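ROK family protein
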Amino acid sequence: MSEMGLNGEEVRRQNLAHLVRLLHREGPTSRSRLTEATGLNRSTIADLVGELSRRGVVEEQAPTGAHRVGRPSLVVRTRGNWMAIAVNPEIDAVTFGAVALNGVVIARERIEVAGAPTPEATARMINEQIELWKAGPLADARLVGIGIAVPGLVRTHDGLVRNAPHLGWHDVPLRDIVSELTQLPTVIDNDATLGLVAEHLFGAAKGVAHVVYLNGGASGIGGGIVVHGLPVRGASGYAGEFGQNRPGILADADRRAPNGVLEDEVSRARLLSVAGLSSADEPTLAHVLTHAIGDAAGDEIARQRRILATALANAVNVLDPQVVVLGGFLATLASTDTVGLATLVRSHAMNEIGDDFELRVAGLGEDRLLIGAAEAAFAPLLSDPAALASEL
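C-alpha cells:
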C-alpha cells in the first residue's frame, strides 16, 4: 500500500519503525542526521524520538567531544536493556549470546557437549542459560525473544528443522519446542544465512550489493548470497549450500574423501586433528594453527586452500560478486594469506570476472552467527516498536 493509502496512525508507526531501524543499524545518531536521513522535519523527529523515549526504546544524550559553537544536536541511541538471546547448537558445543539492540554481545557462553545435543536437550540448555543470566547480566533486560542459528535446512515460516544431518535432526519443530519451554518468541534459521545477514548489515559486506558468503563450522560449510542488496533464499529457502557441491581437485594427492563434497575435503575436523585438538572455539583454533610447529598443519592448510579456491572460483564465475566473505574456520584458512588465496581463486576463474571481486574475512568474527540470530529475534521490534514496547 502506498503512503497515500495509509491513515495517520499507520504512517506514524512506519516512521517510528524507520527511526529504530536507522539507530539499530547505524548506531548513535544526532537528531539533525535523523532529519536528513528520513526526510522528515525537525518537529516530527522530535515528536517521534520523544515517543520512543517514553516507551523506553531509545534515549538521548549530549554528544561527547563537541566543540562547535551553539547548542549541539542531541544524540539518539537505542537503550541497552533491549535484548535478544542468540543460540548456535553444534555437534561439539552449544554457544549462547545475549545481544543488545545496539549490536553488542554483552554475554557469551560456550558449553561443550560430548555428542550432538538432541532438540529437547538444546531447549533445556537454552532455558537454563536464560535463567542464569536473568540473575546476572540480564537482570534488567527486556527480552524480545530467541534466535537460533541451526547448521541445517530450516523451513523458516514455522521453524521446522527439515534436516540438520550432523546433529541428527530431521523434521524437528524446534521453534515450538523452545518457545513452549522458555515462553519466549523463537525464530529459527540456517546458521550461514544468519551469518550472512549479520555480515551484510554490520560486518565485512556492509553496503555491498553483490555478496557471496561461506561459513565454516563444526557441521561443515554453508553459505548465502546477496544480489542487488537483497538476500537470495531460493524456491524453498535453502539456497547457499556450497558445502554440498563437489569441488575441482586438480591433484589426486590432495583428495582425502573419494567422491566427497566440499565440506568433506575442506574440514574443521581435519584442521583440529593437525592442530592436536579434540575441540576448540574459533579464536583458539585460529591461534593454534597460526603458531603450529611442523609441516603437518602447514601442509593441511595449503591443501584445503587449494581446494577451497576451486569452489570459490565456481561461485565467482556463476554469481559475479563484488565481495566474497569467509567466516569461521574458512576465515582462518584465508587469513594465513588472504591476498594469496584471492590470487589462487582468480587463477581458476574467468579473467573478466575474477578481476573484479574482493576476498574478505568476516568482520564480526565469532560473533557473526549470534548477531545474525539476534537480528531475526529483533525483527518484530524493528517492524513495529510501538506495539512490541507496549507489550513488554
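The chain has three domains: 3-78, 82-192+373-391, 204-363.
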